[in-house]
Design brief:
single chain, globular, four-stranded mixed β-sheet, about 220 residues
Length: about 220
């Protein structure tokens, strides 16, 4: 499949505005609720992380692996800020972030796309799975899954409109689910139990570790 092409500035700013709209309309109770995909964080913590990514990226402070200490510092340093203050900080970073995207690549689009869906899962508000950015992240991480599967037998992801195989030939393992669920599974946002339940051909067990590309698979089933 050809890679999805997209305008990184357009996609990032659109996602930023959607996130701001979601958190700006959330109740105080919702803001302090836990994010199922990031169970150590509340919604406000997740927003702090998203703002912190922007601040660190434009400042040139971005480790290659986005390690836990880096992300924890973003949240901790904003612990005493409310949603309005976080949004104001983020809006102030929009121009510099757009400059960064034009000059240095689209990695921040991947971050905001994944975390927008994490936020939607916490707030139980579906949406934004039909964007070019969402499809780009899906295709990028499908490639990473293929690399991680290595010499394992061919795996097919069979969606309603999107299909992917890790290699040529008949698949030994077929996982069938909705397109959005498969895309989220590729970024470690679906549980092993969900992947097992969606497997209609073969044994997915040897392949589960390959799906844990962004950390351990969730211990509970996730949905957005």
């Amino acid at each position: 499949m050809d890679a999805v092409t997209f305008d990184a500035v357009t996609e990032w700013t659109a996602a930023q505005q959607r996130v701001i709209g979601l958190v700006g309309a959330a109740s105080s109770r919702a803001v302090e609720s836990r994010v199922p995909a990031c169970p150590d964080w509340t919604v406000r913590d997740l927003l702090s992380h998203m703002v912190g990514i922007g601040a660190d990226v434009v400042a040139g402070h971005e480790p290659d692996d986005h390690d836990a200490d880096w992300t924890a510092a973003q949240v901790a340093s904003r612990r005493d800020r409310d949603v309005a203050e976080l949004i104001a900080e983020w809006r102030g970073l929009t121009g510099p972030m757009c400059d960064h995207l034009r000059q240095s690549g689209d990695r921040p689009v991947t971050d905001i796309t994944i975390h927008e869906q994490d936020l939607r899962g916490a707030l139980r508000i579906r949406g934004a799975t039909d964007t070019d950015a969402f499809r780009h992240v899906r295709d990028r991480f499908a490639g990473r899954l293929g690399d991680r599967l290595g010499d394992l037998p061919t795996v097919e992801l069979r969606g309603h409109h999107w299909n992917w195989r890790s290699a040529d030939g008949d698949p030994a393992v077929v996982i069938a689910a909705g397109d959005a669920d498969l895309a989220r599974a590729l970024v470690s946002r679906r549980s092993a139990a969900q992947l097992r339940a969606w497997t209609i051909v073969g044994d997915v067990e040897p392949c589960l570790g390959a799906f844990a590309v962004l950390g351990a698979l969730p211990t509970v089933d996730l949905a957005e």
